[in-house]
Specification:
Elements (H helix, E strand, L loop, with lengths): L5 H32 L8 E5 L5 H14 L4 E5 L8 H6 L6 E5 L5 H4 L2 H18 L7 E5 L1 H6 L5 H9 L6 E5 L5 H6 L2 E4 L20
Parallel strand pairs: 1-5, 1-6, 2-3, 2-4, 4-5
């Protein structure tokens, strides 16, 4: 019931709004509680970051920081990157007790211009990765730019997917790089596609320290 005195009317309206807000959030919480109560499975996830947009490796480094924050051990194999010093590499090297880091890349195909060499580097990196997939100490393994070497057929997709599926139970694996093959997407538990909307490179801006590397 609305009162004539403006102050009391405002207070009653505010109280009604607060009541409706509490009722709405209570319904949302109840629905969320029911939803989360049904999620009981724990398993090692195969995570794929792909797409044309920037942020695939960057998102993986966010997961790496999260693991380190919990004191969990991490394995990293970089399949393509290797020539340039990067901020993530310098950071990870500060945690030798928690991180196994293998920088195996020799650059992109247009840099090396040597398919035999590229395939040899990819195979060496995959050998390191295969060992990590069965390392009982590791909580997560990041295979940076794995999708690139699969895209250029430097490794057989079927062999790689089989190795990922036979990894140690409970191990999380993150594969990054554009053009992830359909077989890898099918095997994955979580797939995120980065969509390119706008990038400064197209406006003539070169890669920036702390942003691209």
């Amino acid at each position: 019931m609305q009162r004539e005195r403006g102050g009391e009317t405002t207070i009653e309206a505010d109280n009604d709004e607060l009541r409706r807000h509490r009722e709405k959030t209570a319904r949302i919480k109840a629905a969320k509680d029911r939803l989360y109560a049904g999620k009981t499975i724990e398993k090692g996830l195969l995570i794929v970051h792909t797409g044309t947009g920037k942020g695939k490796s960057t998102a993986a480094w966010g997961l790496a920081v999260r693991c380190l924050g919990h004191g969990l051990k991490l394995g990293v194999v970089q399949f393509v990157k290797g020539r340039r010093e990067t901020g993530e590499r310098q950071l990870l090297e500060r945690f030798p007790d928690l991180v196994k880091l293998r920088v195996m890349g020799e650059g992109f195909t247009w840099e090396t211009q040597d398919r035999t060499r590229d395939m040899a580097a990819a195979r060496a990196a995959f050998t390191e990765a295969s060992a990590m997939l069965h390392d009982p100490e590791l909580h997560m393994v990041i295979l940076d730019e794995l999708n690139i070497v699969l895209r250029y057929e430097q490794l057989p997709v079927a062999e790689v997917v089989d190795a990922l599926e036979r990894r140690r139970p409970g191990l999380h694996v993150v594969a990054t790089g554009r053009n992830a093959p359909p077989e890898l997407l099918e095997a994955a538990d979580l797939v995120t596609e980065m969509k390119l909307v706008k990038h400064p490179f197209r406006a003539g801006v070169k890669g920036q320290l702390g942003v691209e590397f």
